[in-house]
Each structure stands twice: as structure tokens, then as C-alpha cells.
């Protein structure tokens, strides 16, 4: 039986190779033993020998003291795959190293870029107050969270981490901060410190995740039209007969008593279907804190029936998250323009307070509300998840129940939340 054409070497053969020269393993992979002095054995290393346009080239794969036989074979295989695609593996490695060195040389933190931009704008800002406002907002809100980050690594999640905690309470400041972050990232891109789209841009991006500036205060001060809880069963029955991602998102929002924005930005990576838990990261929560949502069996079945087009659970038809008007459009098509998606949280709150025996603090936790009583909040450190699980299961069961006409109280179909 003839000698093997590949995988000729063994760990023992490598150890015993003391004479200087090339020892073939196969497919162009060689163990190279260098020349030693006197009784000293020369160093051992790996080399991949190949031809490109008739020219023989050697590519070093590392020292045999560091790179094992199996690792050397894998490196050789990777190089051969590049050759099959018409790519010279040695030139490819040199280009990767060049790009890496360039990235290291051009790496800048967000704070460094911000300060450089502010310095460059000095002559344009006639009012010193303008510069002071720029510096103040960035130092207060941006630097603590993204200031030390490589500006090239900043993405939408990082920008949302800065903006979300203050978007409602300090909307004017938050809106200006967003524009300043966008300007810093644009400056970094022009100066080749980052590439790609600006994650702080508003139109067509953050406007899908955050309420529009100027409307936030009106939204938080106005009451949201809510459905009487006695009508939720019939409403949900009609909603389930409708197709479309907007209808499913609204149904899911009702079953979980979650905010519209939390549902529209929901990611599959946040969901554990087996455990029935949806974990919303703090960057997407109104209070800026992580919140666990207990998923009823009906909510889990809804998610299991959805197609997985991308990371978003409820993507828009053309990609990206659903707009804040998608759920409103569903209500209009159902002839219920008198209602709002947010109002169903009030429906849940009224039902749980008037029709269930669940404690108030459990209900408030389910709505991700902060307890108003600071003393009570201090003692209530847990999230009461086990109790909330029972609450949400009871709510889902009630939502699937359509009372008989005699059982329905004469309540108005539209009312205002408190």
C-alpha cells in the first residue's frame, strides 16, 4: 500500500523531525525545520506552498510550538478555499492586516470626536452659550454611557440607551441631544473614524422607535380613549379575524398590556417561548429599567404562529419596525377610531382593579409602573413575576370570554383614562 498523499505527519513525527528541511504533510502544507547550531535543533514552523499564475509562493502559518498540526491543516484549508475563489491568500492576509492597522490608527472615542467637532465649530458659534449647551448636554447624558466607546462601534441600541431615559420627561433636551449625537457621528464618518448609516438619524429611523418631538408632552398629558373591559372579548374576537402584522402587534399588546413602542421594537432575542418570558431591555423602557413580561399561553401561541423574517418580531412589510401609526390604522379599519392602542393598558388596569382580586402592586408591576409610594417601593424590591404570571393568564382568559348580553353592564364604549 502506497504512502498517503495527505495528512502524512503525526505529532510524534513532528517531535522527531530534527534535520533541517521541509517535511510534507500534504496539499501544500509543510513543516519546516530550520538550521540549528551544533547539537541544537533548529526552530520548527508551518508553511503553505501554492502557485498563482504559475508562480510558487510560500505563506507562513506560524510556529509549530504555538500552532498545532490540526490548526495548521485548518489554516491550509482556509487558504485553499480562497484560492478556489481566485484570491491570493497571502495578499488577502496582508490586506486584512492593513485594514486592521488603519482601523487602530483611526480609532477614536465618541468623546474625542465630540470635543474635536465642538472645537471646529468655535468660529461659527457667535454665542458662547451655544457652545456651553453642547458641552453640557453631552457631558451630562452622552459621555457617561457612550463617551469612552470607539465611535465606530456605536449603533442604534447605544443611541437609544442615551435618549430613552429622558425622552419623555425632558423631551426638548433629549431632542437637541439626539441632533448633537447625530452631528458627532457624521463628523466621525467624514473623518473616516466610522462607516455606514448614522444610528442617531431621525427620519426613517429613530422616528420609528421614539415619539415625535413636540407631541410627547401632549401625549403624556392627554387622556387615551379606552375600551370598556366588558367589551374586550368581542373586540379581540373581531381583531383576530383580521390579517396583517399590525393586527397581530395590537393583539399582542392587548394580551401583554405593553406599550405600543415596546411591542413594535420587540426582538426575537428578547423572547423565551419555552419559559413564556419576554425581557424588554432598559433602553426600550420608559423608566430605563429592564422589564420582564409574563406571556400567557395565548400570547405564546400568537408568537409561534408568526413568520420569522428578521430579528424584529413585528416587522413592517418593507422592513424595519412598524410605525407608531400602524396600530392606529388597524383600529380605524375596524371602525374604532375612537380608541387608541395605549388605551388598552387602561382597559387592563380597570379590569384588574375592578374584576380581579390581584393586589395593586402586582398590577402596577405588570404595567411597568413605578410605585408612587417611595417607602412601599423600597420594600418591594422583587418584580413579583410569579404572581404576575397568574394575573396575565387570568387576563388572557377574560379576553377570550364574550359575556352574554344580560351580563354586560351599560358602560360607554369610550372613556378617558386616569
From TrEMBL:
Cite the GO molecular-function annotations of the record. Answer: DNA binding
Keywords attached to this entry: DNA integration, DNA recombination, DNA-binding
Biological process terms in GO annotation: DNA integration; DNA recombination
Is DNA-binding there in the keyword field? Answer: yes
> What residues does the Tyr recombinase domain cover?
222-392
Query: What PROSITE patterns would the database entry show?
Result: CB, TYR_RECOMBINASE
Q: Does the keyword Protease apply?
A: no
Which residue ranges run through the membrane? none
Q: Name one Pfam family in it.
A: Phage_integrase
The UniProt record lists the Core-binding (CB) domain at 108-189
Spell out the InterPro entries in the cross-references: CB (IPR044068), DNA_brk_join_enz (IPR011010), Integrase-like_cat_sf (IPR013762), Integrase_catalytic (IPR002104), Integrase_DNA-bd_sf (IPR038488), Integrase_DNA_bind_dom (IPR025166), Integrase_recombinase_N (IPR010998), Phage_int_M (IPR053876)
Please state which protein family the record places this protein in. Answer: Belongs to the 'phage' integrase family.
Q: What is this protein called?
A: Prophage integrase IntA
Which organism is this entry from? Paraburkholderia saeva
